[in-house]
């Protein structure tokens, strides 16, 4: 890779971090020098602080911190750039990286020293989570702090990223051309049909977000809905949207932990994009609680991301754990189905939506980039960079099969039987 210009030596640094002698991107140094294959996506290194971040955290976390802080930047298509970076060496599409060896650390130190990049470890960007002071992992207090870190970043920011539907989970696409809002409406309608909602059905929506599922179930199917979230900002906007829809007599939005609900039974429970926050150690509690809130014959729809990459989940030092979903844990589909069955529910249908989530994430990235200046004004530039990086990287992970997302429909024994086939909801 050479040791001449700044860019040549930056190529050596990146090659050491990635564990590859083949540079997958073109590098632009802070002095304007360029190195790397012609035509490859360009990664710009703005300053020497980026080197210190990589020296102290030589992996995904160091790269992520440098990007969020603006020490490195993507000059070309974000998907092409991240796909190139994940195509070589120790960095995979799942975001997991093998640690650098002792010899690689010594080589990295020498190259960084030659570039004048030695120094103390820079403070992480303000957008990095620090939950240690909030108690034990997956305690109610710490779960509330984790949710606030991700969701209480400004409703205006989320409106720009998610669009009018305000649904923050995988859409269901008939074709890629239907558009995000239509695909999200199709997802909400699919959930309602799977749950068998009719006029007067009592629905519990766990992790209700900004109220879209509750509004759809009440407005289109006549259900009476209790929606719960532990995000104060979500609840505020959800109540406003419910009122604007004229559904305050049918929808109640609560700031409440799922472990605190005691006013069952419900005819149906939807949990869409919430189980990822529960944690493996609490999974049994989660299923037992929801099962106990269902009437006999009642249905549970659990919609959750699944880990397909042969790993337990992302590591605590990964970018997504530090910046996006602190304390979040992904489970395999088999583990989720097993837990639901162990909780006394009968699994009657499983639908995999992996490709649908890739389309959804790409749509969110487009909205973020189209409204970049407004998104930065609504939050921070660092926050916008976090969302851009994580959504693009996750889209690639779904496309590559490292992650999936599944809807598991289960029934509590003792009541009416579900349909013989899927004809009620296909």
Automatic annotation (TrEMBL):
SUPFAM superfamilies: S-adenosyl-L-methionine-dependent methyltransferases
Keyword Transferase: yes
Domain of life of the source: Bacteria
Pfam families cross-referenced by the UniProt entry: CMAS
EC code: 2.1.1.-
Keyword terms, alphabetized: Lipid metabolism, Methyltransferase, S-adenosyl-L-methionine, Transferase
The keyword Lipid metabolism is annotated on this UniProt entry: yes
Top enzyme class: transferase
InterPro entries assigned to the protein according to its UniProt record, in alphabetical order: CFA/CMAS, CMAS, SAM-dependent_MTases_sf
GO molecular function: methyltransferase activity
Swiss-Prot/TrEMBL GO biological process terms: methylation
UniProt-listed PANTHER family: CYCLOPROPANE-FATTY-ACYL-PHOSPHOLIPID SYNTHASE
Family to which this protein belongs: Belongs to the CFA/CMAS family.
Protein name (database record): Cyclopropane-fatty-acyl-phospholipid synthase family protein
Source organism: Klenkia terrae
